[in-house]
């Protein structure tokens, strides 16, 4: 398949160049065809891959969001599985290149396909899938639709292996996971990017995996509650992290500065939409001009801004 | 990338057909990007309207929708009505989303002297689909207009964004009256524009209860009656293709000083109602 060839040439090369760690025999045995995802070490025992700011396609194999893993003394916790089983397997390849400890937890930060279409790759690892308590409900009402609607952009080959794998361990508020002398705090947020956002904080290094509560470069998408997101930015901002692995954007990113751009975008969007609502401008017209002055600051602005404006309008007109 | 993919060649059309065909028994055969033939409609038509002949709307009813559904859960639709002496007034308008699991989104019925000229609402659109409006006029004829809406890209889905919020405020209503932009007209003769909003998940019943593993029954606004004083402005029989928090913006001939009353009922038998005074000053 062409993607394997491409990955061999492009990614393995980059991988060797930056990390200098060759395949281990165990890795090759466990995940035969998966060339490791080119992850970057962001702190002691913390690795992450920076996805491309793009829509999910056949060509990029759904590798558009940031995924990562944390190695404890006993086991590994994976944060998001990526946008295809191919990516999930490549992530497993990257893990196996660093450690032979078992993957105990696969943590899904929220419901979106770019973060969990790779879940099925972890089936044989025996990992427990962990998510926000609202995640199973969200996947029940969207899973089938996601599997259908991504077929056009991703192609039949990639979609064939993808399954909706809901979490079995649910987080309701805040809960610690221990992966061996390493405490991870998982926090379930109120509706913001989605109604099932989960963040992961590694106490040992102070790295915060924000999931899509933090977008950099890639325009944030609002699929939960704009007001909820704005309201929780201060709480998020208050987390004493050294730096962040955002859901999209540079790995790692300075904290809490990583939140500044999205906060500004939300303020502009909310104020434009509020003004339109007050003036009685119908939704169809209002969403065309809202937040246009933010256009130059973001990638994928045209793909997502109008949709954000629609969501914001439907929410803010109840204020 | 996804946004720019269009039906440029027969091969893509075949792939698309395979995709929709697997989920939906019959599907729009895409001939070109803007006006694919609708085989779905051919089979749907008889179920909704029997053998009755449907003629083109010729401006009596017109429909506007975005060419691409930015958010699959909230697709704004505008209907404009322009009757003439020959057709008589519009009695009902049926709004249909061909490719949705429940295609008939709503049937609106207008009061005899309501004078409704414009109606905007929001729909869920699950796939590449025609959205059509069929008006039944006083002369007994059916007249149809339609527009094609492409499915949204990215991770947008026709589902609730914030389920807890929707249920917490179930049945709450809001009515806005928009002041007329043209000044100098007599208040008695000008149409009033209003927006009615109802908090309701309007959910599809396609999701499963995590504890019982049974599908949660569909829960949506089934009936809606908007009246002023004793006269009917419009009523609606609705389905799950109407977006969560159903929203209707419409223009009609208002009578100053008479209250606007809204009664809604949902599939669980819950009734919601509210009343708003309509002062002459707000017209």
UniProtKB/TrEMBL annotation, chain A:
Boundaries of every Metallo-beta-lactamase domain copy: 64-248
NCBIfam families to which the protein is assigned, alphabetical = SoxH_rel_PQQ_2 (TIGR04559)
Q: What PANTHER family does the annotation carry?
A: ACYL-COENZYME A THIOESTERASE MBLAC2, METALLO-BETA-LACTAMASE DOMAIN-CONTAINING
Protein's UniProt keywords contain Acetylation: no
**Superkingdom to which the source organism belongs:** Bacteria
For this chain, the family text in UniProt reads: Belongs to the metallo-beta-lactamase superfamily. Class-B beta-lactamase family.
KW Hydrolase (keyword) present: yes
The upper taxonomy is: Bacteria, Pseudomonadati, Pseudomonadota, Alphaproteobacteria, Hyphomicrobiales
Which Gene Ontology terms cover its molecular function? hydrolase activity
Recorded hits in InterPro entries, A to Z, give: Metallo-B-lactamas, NDM-1-like, RibonucZ/Hydroxyglut_hydro, SoxH-rel_PQQ_2
Keywords of the record: Hydrolase
Gene3D superfamilies on file? Ribonuclease Z/Hydroxyacylglutathione hydrolase-like (3.60.15.10)
What biological-process terms (Gene Ontology) are attached?
A: antibiotic catabolic process
* CDD domains xref list: metallo-hydrolase-like_MBL-fold
User: Which segment of the chain is annotated as a signal peptide?
Assistant: none
* Name of the protein described by the UniProt record: Quinoprotein relay system zinc metallohydrolase 2
From TrEMBL, chain B:
For this protein, the record's InterPro entries field holds:
Fuse-rel_SoxYZ (IPR030831), Ig-like_fold (IPR013783), Ig_E-set (IPR014756), SoxY (IPR032711), SoxY_sf (IPR038162), SoxZ_dom (IPR014880)
Task: List every stretch annotated Disordered.
Answer: 259-283
Record domain Sulphur oxidation protein SoxZ: where: 191-276
Q: Where is the signal peptide?
A: 1-30
State where composition is biased (Basic and acidic residues): 259-274
Highest taxon of the lineage: Bacteria
**Residue ranges annotated for the Ig-like SoxY domain, each copy included:** 47-155
Question: What is an example of a Pfam family matching this protein?
Answer: SoxZ
Q: Which UniProt keywords apply?
A: Signal
* Record-given protein name: Sulfur-oxidizing protein SoxY
């Amino acid at each position: 398949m062409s993607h394997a060839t491409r990955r061999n040439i492009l990614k393995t090369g980059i991988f060797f160049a930056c990390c200098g760690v060759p395949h281990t025999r165990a890795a090759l045995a466990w995940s035969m065809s998966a060339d490791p995802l080119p992850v970057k070490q962001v702190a002691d025992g913390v690795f992450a891959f920076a996805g491309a700011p793009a829509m999910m396609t056949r060509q990029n194999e759904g590798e558009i969001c940031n995924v990562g893993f944390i190695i404890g003394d006993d086991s590994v916790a994976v944060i998001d599985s990526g946008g295809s089983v191919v990516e999930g397997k490549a992530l497993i390849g990257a893990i196996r290149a660093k450690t032979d400890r078992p993957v105990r937890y696969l943590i899904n930060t929220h419901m979106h396909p770019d973060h969990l279409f790779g879940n099925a790759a972890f089936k044989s690892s025996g990992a427990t899938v962990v998510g926000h308590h609202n995640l199973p409900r969200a996947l029940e009402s969207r899973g089938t639709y996601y599997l259908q609607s991504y077929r056009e952009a991703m192609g039949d080959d990639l979609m064939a292996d993808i399954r909706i794998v809901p979490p079995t361990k649910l987080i309701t508020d805040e809960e610690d996971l221990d992966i061996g002398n390493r405490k991870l705090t998982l926090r379930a947020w109120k509706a913001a990017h989605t109604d099932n956002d989960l963040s992961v904080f590694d106490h040992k290094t102070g790295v915060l995996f924000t999931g899509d509560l933090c977008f950099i470069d890639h325009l944030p998408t609002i699929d939960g509650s704009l007001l909820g997101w704005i309201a929780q930015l201060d709480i998020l901002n208050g987390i004493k992290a050294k730096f962040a692995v955002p859901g999209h954007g540079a790995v790692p990113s300075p904290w809490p500065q990583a939140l500044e751009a999205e906060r500004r975008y939300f303020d502009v969007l909310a104020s434009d939409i509020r003004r339109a609502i007050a003036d009685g401008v119908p939704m169809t017209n209002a969403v065309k001009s809202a937040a246009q002055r933010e256009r130059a600051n973001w990638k994928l602005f045209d793909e997502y801004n109008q949709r954000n404006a629609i969501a914001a309008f439907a929410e803010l007109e109840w204020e | 990338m996804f946004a720019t993919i269009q039906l440029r060649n027969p091969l893509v059309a075949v792939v698309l057909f395979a995709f929709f065909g697997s989920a939906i028994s019959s599907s729009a055969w895409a001939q070109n990007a803007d006006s694919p033939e609708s085989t779905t409609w051919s089979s749907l038509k008889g179920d909704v309207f029997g053998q009755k002949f449907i003629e083109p709307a010729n401006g009596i009813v017109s429909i506007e929708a975005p060419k691409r559904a930015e958010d699959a859960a909230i697709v704004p639709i505008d209907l404009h009505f322009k009757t003439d002496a020959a057709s008589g007034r519009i009695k009902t308008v049926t709004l249909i989303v061909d490719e949705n699991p429940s295609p008939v989104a709503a049937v609106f019925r207008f009061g005899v002297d309501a004078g409704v000229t414009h109606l905007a609402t929001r729909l869920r659109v699950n796939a590449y689909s025609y959205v059509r409006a069929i008006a039944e006029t006083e002369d007994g004829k059916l007249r149809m207009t339609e527009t094609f809406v492409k499915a949204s890209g990215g991770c947008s889905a026709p589902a609730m964004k914030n389920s807890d919020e929707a249920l917490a405020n179930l049945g709450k209503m809001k009515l806005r009256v928009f002041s007329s932009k043209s000044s100098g007209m007599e208040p008695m003769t000008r149409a009033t524009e209003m927006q009615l909003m109802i908090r309701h998940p309007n959910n599809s019943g396609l999701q499963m209860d995590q504890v019982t593993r049974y599908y949660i029954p569909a829960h949506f606004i089934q009936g809606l009656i908007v009246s002023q004083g004793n006269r009917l402005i419009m009523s609606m029989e609705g389905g799950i293709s109407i977006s969560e928090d159903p929203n209707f913006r419409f223009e009609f001939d208002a009578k100053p000083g008479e209250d606007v009353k809204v009664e809604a009922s949902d599939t669980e038998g819950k009734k919601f109602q509210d009343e708003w005074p309509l002062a002459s000053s707000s017209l």
